[in-house]
Write a structure and sequence with these properties.
The protein is an alpha/beta fold. It is built from ten helices and five strands, in the order E-H-H-E-H-H-E-H-H-E-H-E-H-H-H.
């Protein structure tokens, strides 16, 4: 089993929104020497969106993101599917991310509240996208101003963040994240 800091398992939301706003390279830099993984459930969600959102090709074709089929993780997947998947198979991506992360001792990169609660309940190491970016500020890979600009662009692209435009610095300071 790998150490959770070595493998980051990404959900659809962060990847699609970073791609939409042309910031996918920032995530690549943040991943660094770690392994970025998306399970087949996330691949499927991205593929389903490509016909409406061509920018999703950049995620699917990113050489630094490893696509993994859920094979031995079905017990975990069944657990998380029961908790998260609603009508229309919503949240299959999150269920796959949590199943893969739990089975491999990886870190799930998830932002949705229900998925974060499920991760906490089932002892899956997880981190939100903002926490990942703040970690990069603390390690001096990124600057506060750069992450603030990224956050503002994500908000422009309709990504839900816990603050409005221009609010990253204050939020991060109040959360003791930087």
């Amino acid at each position: 089993m790998s150490d959770h800091v070595d493998i980051l398992v990404f959900d659809t939301g962060p990847l699609s929104h970073f791609a939409k706003q042309s910031w996918l390279g920032v995530l690549r830099a943040v991943v660094g020497e770690r392994t970025a993984v998306i399970p087949d459930t996330v691949v499927h969600e991205l593929q389903n969106g490509v016909h409406e959102h061509a920018y999703l090709h950049s995620v699917l074709n990113a050489s630094w993101i490893e696509q993994r089929e859920l094979i031995d993780e079905y017990e975990e997947f069944a657990t998380f599917s029961a908790l998260l998947v609603g009508s229309g198979n919503r949240n299959l991506g999150e269920a796959g991310v949590l199943a893969y992360a739990k089975a491999h001792g990886a870190t799930a990169i998830i932002d949705d509240g229900p998925a974060r609660r499920a991760a906490k309940t089932h002892n899956v190491h997880h981190q939100g996208t903002l926490a990942l970016l703040c970690e990069s500020i603390r390690s001096e890979l990124l600057t506060v101003d750069l992450v603030s600009a990224v956050a503002d662009h994500l908000i422009e692209g309709e990504y839900r963040l816990p603050f409005g435009p221009g609010g990253f610095k204050r939020w991060a300071a109040n959360q003791d994240m930087i």
